[in-house]
């Protein structure tokens, strides 16, 4: 779909049925149309009391600014479209009491939590928590993906993932949780990691990861994750972790074929140049890189 000149007016016209047949035909073919249509249908089923829509929308935009800043490789106009419909699901979010932050390919997002702790989400990551729980001093949240936490001192702070639970009192650390991978790195203080039916205390400069049901430990000298500075670094990491990171940062599909994804990689790649990133990873491993199209890469020996 071509970029609308005024996204708020465009979506307002669509919601009120004022788009022309030609505009509707183009809009229906866009990737975003199913999501917006589902939102609109959901709001039509709600019995919502009268309120100042213009004022509420302005308030939501201001709250978005407070929540954090997104650093994205996706065109800015696409986010303006999404922001202009935030009013539809913003009401549901308030009623449910669940706060959700998520990033897409190539994005990072900075989030300020209710206790003034801060989180930076890496690409393709989702973070959720119950606002009412935090008001009661229960600092709990759920994470799917990778995030860097700077935790204010206070009551226990728990990060729950599908692979384990990380609990701290006040520290700086990262959690990286996916279906086949779990890693916790501590940059300051100490954290307690519960996984595989056991608990592990990780202190500053130490890290643990779970691979194929086994716990690995390693040390590092960094004082913060490199990906907040547009570079992803790895220490003896399995290749499948590196491939996933490349796909998430550059919105590409990497077909690995017969390449051994369990072989280990130590090094880094930039977030600002795909060609340089691919060379940094695969040349040293003597893996051939072929572009099938601009978004599909095939690896081979």
Beginning-to-end CA distance, first to last residue? 39 Å
The helix count comes to 9
Q: Sheet bearing the most strands, described?
A: 14 strands, mixed
Order of helices and strands: HHHHEHHEEEEHEEEEEEEEEEHEEHEE
Q: Strand content of the residues, in percent?
A: 35-45%
For the record, the count of structural domains works out to 3
What is the share of helical residues?
25-40%
Please tally the β strands and state the result: 19
CATH topology-level fold name of the largest domain: Jelly Rolls
Report low-confidence residues grouped into runs of 5 or more: 42-51, 63-94
Main structural class: alpha+beta
Question: If you average the pLDDT, what whole number results?
Answer: 82
Q: Determine and state the CATH class of the largest domain.
A: Mainly Beta
Which CATH architecture of the largest domain would you pick? Sandwich
Rg, alpha carbons: 22 Å
Form type? flat
Pfam family, one: FecR
Transmembrane segments: 77-94
GO molecular function: sigma factor antagonist activity
Domain FecR protein: 101-192
